[in-house]
Amino acid sequence: MVVLTEQIEIPASYEKLKAWTANFEEEFVKWSPYHIECNLYNGNYHAGSKVRFREIVMGLDYDVTGTITECEQDENHFRIVFRSDKKTAFITFEGKRTETGCHFSHTEAFGMTTPVIGAIMNFLIFKVFFRKKANWQLIRDDMILDNRYLYDILTEGKYPERIPLDKLLAGARQRMCSRAYHEYRALFSDLCRELSGYSEEWNYTVSHYFMPKCRAIGFCPEKHSCGRMPPRE
To answer: Where are the beta strands (DSSP E) in the chain?
Structure first.
């Protein structure tokens, strides 16, 4: 398995972190401009509850459902573990009280844990399916940004700007394609430059998520390819 963990110390009370977690269905969407939807189908995140997340990951629309497999909570600590229905992704949120406020840990694990099947499936997942699409540093960057957003939410009550990412990403993928008219490509290049200079959040969005559609899907869907990516097999 590939396991990524990012942690952050936050100078805000553990009660604030716990209250944020208690309202997770609403807070997940407000947490990051790249988070689109969250559904707690059982109305809570207790063990056995069904959950759906939808967010932008590596420039792709990531829509996943799964189950809460663990949920531990007391006055000083919580730990919540989510497992996708396909059992290839695990997300763990853990928080605890500290002398200066609270500590938050975010872990994402990819792969399968069944001994024999796991070895085979992990080979297929990481050597075949994810070879062209998985960029673990980009995923880690997303996790670091999420932690930074949470820091601002709990310490200042400041939520990030909401960005109409679905429309922007669709436009970027069309206008940044080499087959698009050069006037459109030049216009979008100017737009990216201006957005990058507008704020740190926009700079991150442009550098990580604005890309031609071939890079987002891993192949060229055009009849006459420029050669940047291999054609659809």
So the answer is: 2-10, 35-40, 50-57, 60-73, 77-84, 89-98, 101-110
Fill in the amino acid letter for 156: E
Q: Which residues are CB-contacts of 35 (< 8 A; sequence separation ≥ 6)?
A: 28, 29, 53, 54, 55
Q: Cα separation of 179 and 20, whole Å?
A: 46
B/e letters for 170-195, b = 16+ CB within 10 Å, e = fewer, are: eebbebbbebbeeeebeebeebbeeb
Length, in residues, of the chain: 233
pLDDT band at 78 (very low <50, low <70, confident <90, very high): very high
3-state secondary structure 122-180: HHHHHHHHCCCCCCHHHHHHHHHHHHHHHHHHHHHCCCCCCCCHHHHHHHHHHHCCCCC
Under DSSP, the state recorded for 224 is S
Joined together, the tokens standing for residue 226 give: 């420029």
Mean confidence (pLDDT) of the chain? 81
| pTM exceeds 0.90 | no
Q: Tell me the residue type at 100.
A: T
Q: For residues 91 and 4, give the distance between their C-alpha atoms in angstroms, rounded to a whole number.
A: 10
Q: What tokens does 7 get?
A: 């942690």
